[in-house]
Amino acid sequence: MDIGIDLGTTFSVIAVNGEVDLADDYPDGIYLPECNATIIPTPDGEPTFPSVTVEDPENPGTYLFGRDAAQKAEEGLAPAMFSKRKIGTRETFEMSSGALTAEEIAREFLAYLKQCAEQALGQKVSRAVITHPAHFDRSAVEETRQAASGAGFDMSLPEQMLMEPVAAALAYTRSDDRDPLRVLTYDLGGGTFDVTYLERSGGVIEMLAFDGDHLMGGYNFD
């Protein structure tokens, strides 16, 4: 089984192609007919996973993710937040047992998302298409790929790494059969702002331009 992951700066999302029934002991999925995809929620039934990681104070060397990690922040701990902005750099995040790079945090978080997907689907997940900001340079994209490989995904195909606004534009084209078609898509996320321009002509989709700013997301507006 293959899945799609939006590894977001503030929130992340897991999806699977088609209308899929999830395991009886897992919350119901959210089917999006316009995209023909099913959102896999968190174990608590939320549609998005907060992109937050913290070392478990009761079990050093292990980590809490998502809502559980955010809750620890409210209790006074300092979790890793917005770590995706640092992928491709050597900056680190301090944990109780030592410092982690953004790539290492992404690896742990992606492993958690993989575990949730396998629990929800009731089968092994082997590959993922992972979206990344348009502004990511080659180093950041490659580190994200390496993090996914370290999390247990087979990331051998180059097209498994996809710009976030490109993914949104491709999803839109599935519900619009006009040809030729020109699509300008922006992704205003919690931490980044990205835009891409696509054209479809003769059934062939080509990306013509893209840009982004990793310090102009909704969190910065707030």
- Elements, N to C (H/E): EEEEEEEHEEEHEHEHEEEH
Rg over alpha carbons: 18 Å
Mean pLDDT comes to: 93
Low-confidence stretches: none
Percent helix: 25-40%
Structural class, by secondary structure, is alpha+beta
Distance between the termini: 38 Å
What fraction of residues sit in β-strands?
A: 25-35%
Largest sheet: 7 strands, mixed
How many beta strands in the DSSP annotation? 15
Number of distinct helices = 5
Search tags:
single chain, 222 residues, alpha+beta, seven-stranded mixed beta sheet, three-stranded antiparallel beta sheet, 15 strands
Structural write-up:
The protein has helices at 66-74, 102-121, 138-150, 164-173, 218-221; strands spanning 2-6, 11-17, 30-32, 37-40, 49-50, 52-55, 63-65, 80-81, 92-95, 98-101, 127-132, 161-163, 181-188, 193-201, 204-213. The protein has 222 residues and is an alpha+beta fold. The strands form 4 sheets. Strands 1, 2, 3, 4, 5, 11 and 12 form a 7-stranded mixed β-sheet that branches. The chain has a 3-stranded antiparallel β-sheet with strand order 7-6-8, with helices on both faces.
